[in-house]
Write a structure and sequence with these properties.
alpha/beta; DNA polymerase, domain 1; 24 helices; 15 strands; elongated
C-alpha cells in the first residue's frame, strides 16, 4: 500500500507522515491498527482526518452511511459495542468498524470468537482480565549519557545521545574520560574498559544504544507481560480451538519472550550489588556501634583483682597497668570485632567482592577503617559498571530483534480482543450472524437494543430476503403514535449497518441484501421554508432515482410541507423509487390513504402497527409486529379515550364529545 494513493493524501502529506514515523510501512501499520492518537501527532492531521485515513485503509470507501442519521446510528452502535472492550486500545480500534465491501474475513473471525466464548467462557474471562493491560506501546524520548564513537555519521542517534567522530590522530584513549562509550569500527581497545561496548563496523541500532532498547521493554512492561501470558497459554496446549490460531499470529517469533522478560526484570547479582552498595556505609556504622555495646556489656560483667603490691605498681607505672588491663579485656574486644567482620562478610556474599580480614583500626575505641570501606565501595562501583554494561548489552542483543515483532504482536492482540469484545456484546444481546443475500432485508424476532428496556421482538422484511407475501421492495408503515414505527425503522437500520460491517445482528434470524448505501431520512422538525424545501426535494430526488443498490428508511417525510402537498410529493418519490429494482424502501407515514390516492396506484404495500386498546393502567396495548396489508388505526382516538377516563368536570365532558366524533 502506498500512502500517496489514499484519498486526500498527496505526495507532500505522505512524506510528512513517513518522516514522522520513520518509514511508510510503520505509518501504514499504525493506520491499520487504528491508533488515531498516534496518527494525529503528525503535523496537519486532525483526529477526524486521521480516523478517516484509518477507515480508508480498513476498506471503508465512505459511501455506505449516506446521511447524517445513518452516521449517528452507526456511532451509537460502535459506542455500545465499545462498552464490552477490555481496554482503551480496543475501544479506539472499534472506530475502524465501518461498513465495507468485503466482510468475509471479519465474519469468519467474529464467528470464531463467538464460538470460543461459548465453548471456553472461563479461559475467555482470564484473557479478558489479561487484555486490560493492552495498549499502544510507548517509545522513550529520554537522552542517555552513553557516548557513541563512530567513523560513520549516525544522525538519527543524536537526539538520544552524544555522537562523536574521531579526528585524525585521536585514539580510544582520548575517550576514556567518558564513563559509558560505544565504540564502533576500527581503532577499538583490545582490553575493553568497564562501561564500554565495542562493536563492528555495521552494528544494529538496538546494541549501539542498548539502554534505549531496554527502556522500551521496561516502559511497556505491562503490555508485554500480557503478550507473554498469551504465549504461555498457547504453550500449555490445554485447549484446541480455531481462535487460538488468531492468537498465535500475535506470538510469531516470540517463543523466548517470557524467559527474556524474566531475565530483564530479575537482574540477580546486579540487584544484590546495588543493594549492598546502598547499605555499606550505614551497615558498617551500625557494626561499629554494635562492637562498642558488646564490649561495654562485657566490661560491666568483668572483675579485676589486684594485690596491694600490684596496685602500688599500677600507680607508679600507668603503662604497665594498661598492659595488664588489656590482657584481661583484649579477648572481649577481639571477639566483638571478629563477629562484626563476619557479618560484614555475609553482607558481601553474592556481589563477587571479597571481604577483607580486618575492617577496624587497631586503636580503641573501635573505629571502622574508612580506607578499607572506601576501597570496597569503589570495587562495588566498578563491578556494577561491568555487570550492568554486560547485562545491558546482552539483553539488548537478545531483545532488540524482538521489538518490531512485539509491536506487531500487540497490534494483533488488540485486534483479537476486538473480536472477543464483539462476541461479548453479541452474547449479551443474543445476536446472530445474518445470512447475506442478494436483495432485501428480513428479521425474525428482531430487537431494538438501544431502548434502555426489554424490547418487544418484531418480525418484518422487504424485498427478496423477506418471507412469501412480503417480497415487495416498498412499504408504507402506518399506525399508532408511540406504537413502535420509528423503533422498527431503526431496528432495520441497525441490522443493515451491522450486517455490512460483518457483525451479528440482534435477531433470532436475519437475511440482509448487499447494498451500496443506507439512507435514513429522519422526521423533519417542521414545515420548511421555500428554499429549504427545494433543497430537500432535490436531495430526495437524487436518492430515489439513483439506480445503485440501496436501502431507504424514511420517517414521516410529509412533515416537510403541508399535508396535501406532502402526500403528492411523496407519491411521486415512491413511484420513482419503485422504478429502481435495486432499491428497497420503507416509509413511516400518517398519510398512507392520501399518498396512494395521489399516486393513482392501488398496489402499494401498506402495513400497520395496531394499538388494540388501553390496558387496566390506561397504557396503550400495541402489537409491535406490523400487520401486513393493513392500515392501522391512529393513536389519537385512544389518547382521547384515556383523557376521558383521567380528566374531570368540563374537560371530561369536552373529551367525551370529541371521542364521539371518531
Amino acid at each position: 500500500m502506498v500512502l500517496s494513493l489514499l484519498p486526500g493524501v498527496g505526495e507532500r502529506l505522505a512524506k510528512k507522515i513517513t518522516d514522522h514515523f520513520g518509514s511508510e510501512q510503520i505509518a501504514i501499520d499504525y493506520l491499520k491498527a487504528g491508533d488515531i492518537g498516534r496518527i494525529a501527532e503528525v503535523e496537519g492531521l486532525s483526529p477526524k482526518r486521521a480516523l478517516s485515513l484509518a477507515r480508508c485503509v480498513a476498506g471503508d470507501d465512505g459511501q455506505f452511511l449516506a446521511t447524517k442519521e445513518s452516521v449517528k446510528l452507526h456511532q451509537k452502535l460502535i459506542q455500545q459495542i465499545s462498552g464490552f472492550a477490555a481496554c482503551a486500545a480496543t475501544r479506539d480500534r472499534m472506530q475502524l468498524l465501518t461498513p465495507i465491501r468485503d466482510i468475509t474475513t471479519r465474519r469468519n473471525k467474529i464467528t470464531t470468537a463467538m464460538d470460543f466464548l461459548e465453548s471456553y467462557p472461563q479461559i475467555e474471562k482470564n484473557l479478558n482480565s489479561s487484555f486490560r493491560s493492552l495498549g499502544a506501546t510507548r517509545n522513550t524520548i529520554e537522552r542517555y549519557q552513553r557516548v557513541v564513537v563512530s567513523h560513520e555519521p549516525r544522525e538519527h542517534l543524536k537526539k538520544y545521545c552524544r555522537v562523536l567522530t574521531p579526528s585524525d590522530g585521536e585514539t580510544w584513549k582520548d575517550y576514556t574520560v567518558f564513563k559509558s562509550v560505544t565504540w564502533i569500527g576500527s581503532g577499538a581497545p583490545s582490553q575493553v574498559p568497564d562501561g564500554w561496548i565495542v562493536l563492528g563496523s555495521s552494528p544494529k541500532d538496538e546494541v549501539i544504544l542498548p539502554e534505549r532498547t531496554l527502556d522500551w521493554f521496561t516502559n511497556n512492561k505491562r503490555i508485554l507481560e500480557c503478550l507473554s501470558s498469551t504465549i504461555n497459554l498457547l504453550r500449555s496446549g490445554s485447549i484446541d480451538h480455531e481462535f487460538l490460531g488468531l492468537l498465535s499470529e500475535s506470538t510469531t517469533g516470540l517463543s523466548q519472550l517470557p524467559e527474556l522478560l524474566q531475565m530483564l526484570f530479575d537482574e540477580g547479582d546486579i540487584a544484590k550489588a546495588e543493594q549492598v552498595k546502598d547499605q555499606i556505609w550505614p551497615f558498617t556504622k551500625n557494626l561499629q556501634t554494635q562492637v562498642h555495646q558488646q564490649v561495654e556489656q562485657a566490661m560491666n560483667d568483668a572483675k579485676l583483682a589486684l594485690s596491694g603490691s600490684e596496685l602500688l605498681e599500677a600507680l607508679s607505672d600507668g603503662a604497665g597497668f594498661q598492659r595488664k588491663l588489656k590482657e584481661v579485656t583484649g579477648h572481649v574486644i577481639d571477639e566483638a570485632m571478629q563477629e562484626a567482620t563476619n557479618q560484614f562478610s555475609e553482607l558481601l556474599q553474592g556481589t563477587g567482592i571479597r571481604s577483607p580480614p580486618v575492617i577496624f583500626t587497631s586503636d580503641w575505641p573501635a573505629k571502622i577503617d574508612r580506607q578499607v570501606i572506601d576501597r570496597i565501595d569503589s570495587a562495588l562501583e566498578e563491578k556494577l559498571k561491568a555487570q550492568q554494561a554486560d547485562h545491558v548489552y546482552n539483553m539488548a542483543r537478545k531483545l532488540g530483534p524482538l521489538k518490531s515483532l512485539c509491536e506487531d504482536g500487540i497490534r494483533n492482540l488488540v485486534e483479537c480482543e476486538q473480536w472477543l469484545a464483539i462476541a461479548r456484546w453479541s452474547q449479551h444481546y443474543g445476536c446472530k450472524m445474518p445470512e447475506i443475500v442478494s436483495h432485501g432485508i428480513w428479521v425474525e424476532n428482531g430487537r431494538h437494543i438501544m431502548l434502555g428496556l426489554e424490547p418487544d421482538p418484531v418480525t418484518y422484511g422487504l424485498g427478496e430476503a423477506a418471507q412469501e407475501g412480503d417480497k415487495q421492495n416498498l412499504s408504507l408503515l402506518t399506525g399508532a403514535n408511540s406504537g413502535g414505527k420509528t423503533t422498527l425503522l431503526e431496528l432495520l437500520a441497525h441490522t443493515c449497518i451491522l450486517a455490512h460491517m460483518g457483525l451479528p445482528v440482534p435477531a433470532d434470524k436475519a437475511k440482509v441484501g448487499g447494498v451500496e448505501s443506507l439512507h435514513i431520512l429522519a422526521k423533519a422538525g417542521g414545515t420548511q421554508s421555500a428554499g429549504a424545501l427545494e433543497q430537500t426535494l432535490v436531495e430526495l430526488a437524487d436518492v430515489v432515482s439513483d439506480p445503485t443498490p440501496k436501502l431507504i428508511l424514511a420517517d414521516e417525510l410529509e412533515a416537510i410541507t403541508e399535508p396535501g402537498a406532502g402526500a403528492r410529493i411523496i407519491a411521486g418519490m415512491l413511484l420513482a423509487a419503485r422504478s429502481q429494482p435495486e432499491t428497497c424502501m420503507m416509509l413511516v407515514t400518517h398519510l398512507a390513504p392520501a399518498i396512494i390516492k395521489a399516486s393513482q396506484c392501488d398496489d402499494f404495500r401498506v402495513d400497520g402497527i395496531e394499538a388494540s386498546g388501553l390496558d387496566a393502567d390506561l397504557e396503550l396495548v400495541v402489537d409491535r409486529t406490523p400487520k401486513r396489508n393493513h392500515l392501522a388505526r391512529s393513536t389519537p382516538e385512544l389518547i382521547v379515550k384515556r383523557l376521558v377516563e383521567r380528566s374531570s368536570g368540563h374537560a371530561k365532558e369536552l373529551f367525551g364529545e370529541i371521542l364521539q366524533m371518531f
